[in-house]
Structure formats: C-alpha cells, structure tokens
Automatic annotation (TrEMBL):
NCBIfam families, per the entry: TAT_signal_seq
Annotated source species: Roseiconus nitratireducens
Name listed for the protein in its UniProt record: Gfo/Idh/MocA family oxidoreductase
Keyword Signal on entry: yes
Highest taxon of source: Bacteria
Pfam families from the UniProt entry: GFO_IDH_MocA, GFO_IDH_MocA_C2
Length: 456
C-alpha cells in the first residue's frame, strides 16, 4: 500500500469512528458506477458554474444525474443549464442561492467551482447538510480554513474529493513520474523545481455599475465589501466573454481578497505532485524563503496599499525546505511543469510530456508491472469523478483527499505570506504554525464578512 493510501486509510478509519460515534455515518451507498443504470446513479448538484464549473459537470454526466445548479450570475446559470439540456436532454433546477440546493434531500453530492473565497463556507455547510463534496482546487484561502474542513470531514464522515485532477488524468503521466521515482530510476531526489508561470499586473480598474443579472454582494460573500471593477476590453480564449481586467469573473485569481494568484492556482497542481513524489503528504516544509519576487502594487505590513489593481505576484522564486533538506523551488520562470533531479538522473513532466533519459530508458527497461497502479493504490480511474463516486460507494476518502491536499497547499499559502511580508518564514509542520513571528501567523486565518459567516 502506498504512503498516500495508507494516509487515506488512516483518515478513513478516524472519520468512520468519529462519525459512527455521532450516529451520522452512512456505511453503504444506494448507487453504482454503472452508467447504464439510471436508477442507481448518484444525484449531483453544481455550485458555481463558469468555466471549471461546467467542465467538471460536463465530465461527470457519464456517471451522475444533475438535479440542481446554483450561481449568483443569472446569465451564467441560464447558459450552463442550456448546455446541460443540450447534452442530456434535461435541465437542472436553477437557484441563485446555493443554500436552496443544500436543503434538498435528493442531492447525494455537490460539485463546487465557485471562486476560492467561497470554497470553505459552501463545503462545510454542504457536509453538515449530509452531502458528499467535490471541490475545485485550491481548496482554501487560508491554512485555518483547511483545518476546519478536515475537522468537518472527520466529524460528519462525508467523502470529500479535491479537484486536483493531475492525480488521475492527463494520460496518467504524473502517476508514471512518481512510479519512476519510486522505482529508483533517478536515485535519491536532490531537488524538485515547479514551474508555474508568472502573471501580469493590471492598469487602474475603475469602479462601474454591476452587470445586469449579477448579484455582486453575494458574489463577494465572505470577502470584504468592495466595488465592482472592470475595464471595457474583453477576455479572449479560455474564460473569455468577460472583461479582461476586473475583480470578478475569471480575473478574481489576481486578487488576494479572493484567491492566491499563480502560487495557489498552478501551484495547487504541480506542488501537489512534487509533494506526493517526496512522500511529504503528512508534513511539509520547515522553512520558506522568498529568493526573489515582484508585486504589481505597493504593500505595507503585508497588505496592498491600493484597491484598484491586481495585487498578487507577477514573478517569483520561492525555496521550500522539504523533509530530508530537499529543496522544492517554485518559480515563475521556465517551462510550466515539474523537474525532478536525483543522484542518478533527471526528468521533466507536465501535461504535455514526460521526458528525459530515465523516460527514454523505459523502452529497454520498463517499469515493473503494476507500478502505476501501486502509486494510485489500485486500478486507476478513468477520470476524477469516477474515483469520487467509487469513494462514495466504499465510504473511503478518494485519491485527492483533503489532508494531503491541505499539507501541500500550506506550502503555497506560506509562500504567499513570505512574499507579502518580504521575509523568510520558519514553519512548524507538527503544530502547523509559523515559528516566532506573530505578524506572519496573523495571515493563517481570515474573518468572513458579517452576514457571510459559516453556518455551523
């Protein structure tokens, strides 16, 4: 059994024990993975529908029936429901308030693809309402939010899948990379570099009227009160059809109020695989060093001094000291992907390629039979939703569990804190706190705006 699956199993046992004591754990499931058995298919709802919301819904219609959608933008809600009807022949019930979805007894699980600042509130309330949860990455806005989600998973016994799909999809390329490492093909790991791309700043973005159909106050939700901002130029390509420069649709990723910039966006993918490969899913770094970075606006005491421009880093090089004193470098430079360097060789992996001499050597010296399945912990699911539903059946935690995800994401959160404060941070991975730095520790949590506290 792999380290990851030992961890999953251990947390599963903790979860079931706590939930059984509370009398809330469901030990069996009424549905199966059979796509041709409509009476046994789980009933899903999606909360947050733009871009990734439709992507995960679209991928999941093979395995589940969608009975409800929720989004604070009426235009997005309507357009997504039309897509669902065109694909499946049936639209979902549409709501402007996700809480109406959670009130329904016929929903087995919710898929959450809201902006990051909404993830924790919706996830916690969904679990308390008896729903299993699939939530997009990055799971949290702060480290404290991660701890809360872990607590509620354990308390309720719900199954929780994080949407870090590189653990399952992309032709299993990342699983093969970890299998190479475990087979000793590069010897002992000496360094891991995660290239996650840089970002751009923005011009000054004026406050304007809220677009028709958008409930702006609800979109802000737990985040601080702010004006809606946008410039006329329209985004093209993925995420297109909305303002290129805004503090709302798509571009919210460039604001610390709602996200963590590239560090949490792409970092949640590549740092995840790197942490898994290093066997650090139960711990994390002990030191975070901001070697270099660029912020698009001026900061004071860790906070941007203006509110009308993007404020997350545009360039950076962060060194995380991982167990065994192995450096994990997170950089905006170079190719997007992960470079593993060991005592016997090196190779590179991303969503498009797995390359390097250890990979070329597989032609004459293939991996042992079952090596990829051993990394995964069993037969590899065809996609992330299939793994989620299989976990719903077994009542065990899936391949992207909240514990290993949060441990990985702590590295990204700490990197952002180090950049915001402009200094090295010493981290205690057992206590999960920053050592000797009260100011830095104040960034580990964030209060929700009044009226949008988590309903517990």
């Amino acid at each position: 059994m792999t380290d990851l699956n030992r961890l999953n199993r251990r947390h599963f046992l903790r979860t079931t024990s706590a939930a059984a004591a509370a009398g809330v754990f469901a030990g069996s499931s009424r549905f199966s993975l059979a796509a041709d058995s409509p009476n046994e298919r789980p009933v899903f709802a999606t909360i947050g529908l733009r871009n990734q919301g439709w992507t995960i819904t679209n991928k999941s219609t093979k395995f589940a029936d969608f009975a409800a959608f929720a989004d604070v933008d009426a235009n997005v809600l309507g357009a997504t429901n039309e897509k669902l009807k065109e694909k499946t022949g049936k639209a979902a019930d549409g709501y402007d308030d996700y809480r109406k979805v959670l009130e329904r007894d016929d929903i087995d699980a919710v898929m959450i693809a809201t902006p990051d600042h909404w993830h924790t509130k919706v996830s916690v309330e969904a679990m308390l309402a008896g729903k299993d949860v699939y939530c997009e990455k990055p799971l949290t806005l702060t480290i404290a939010e991660g701890k809360l989600i872990e607590k509620i998973v354990k308390q309720t016994g719900r199954v929780f899948q994080v949407g870090t799909m590189q653990r399952t999809e992309n032709d299993h390329r990342f699983l093969k990379a970890i299998a190479l490492i475990r087979a000793g093909r590069i010897g002992d790991i000496r360094k891991v570099t995660c290239g996650i791309n840089g970002a751009t700043g923005s011009p000054v973005i004026p406050a304007i009227d809220v677009p028709e159909g958008l409930d702006w106050d609800m979109w802000l939700g737990p985040a601080p009160k702010a004006s809606y901002r946008a410039l006329p130029e329209i985004r093209q390509g993925y995420g297109g059809g909305v303002p290129l420069y805004t503090n709302c649709h798509y571009a919210w990723r460039n604001w610390y109020e709602y996200s963590g910039g590239q560090m949490n966006d792409w970092g949640a993918h590549h740092v995840d695989i790197a942490t898994w490969a290093l066997g650090a899913g139960e711990t994390g770094p002990n030191k975070i060093t901001p070697v270099s970075y660029s912020l698009p606006v001026e900061y004071k005491d860790g906070y941007p001094t203006v509110d009308d421009q993007y404020n997350t880093p545009t360039k950076f090089e962060i060194h995380a000291n991982m167990p065994g004193d192995i450096p994990l470098v997170i950089t905006s430079e170079g190719d997007n992907g992960i470079l593993f360097e060991g005592t016997k060789g090196r190779f590179f992996v991303n969503r498009g390629r797995l390359s390097g001499k250890p990979v070329e050597d597989l032609e004459s010296n293939p991996l042992p039979e079952g090596a990829v399945e051993e990394v995964y912990g069993g037969p590899v699911s065809e996609n992330h939703t299939a793994n989620f539903i299989a976990a719903m059946q077994s009542r065990q935690q899936p391949i992207s569990d909240v514990w290993t995800h949060n441990r990985m994401l702590e590295t990204c959160h700490l990197a952002n804190i180090a950049i915001r404060l402009g200094r090295e941070l010493n981290w205690d991975p057992q206590k999960r706190e920053i050592v000797g730095d009260p100011e830095a520790n104040s960034f580990l949590s964030r209060e929700n705006r009044k009226g949008y506290e988590i309903d517990m």
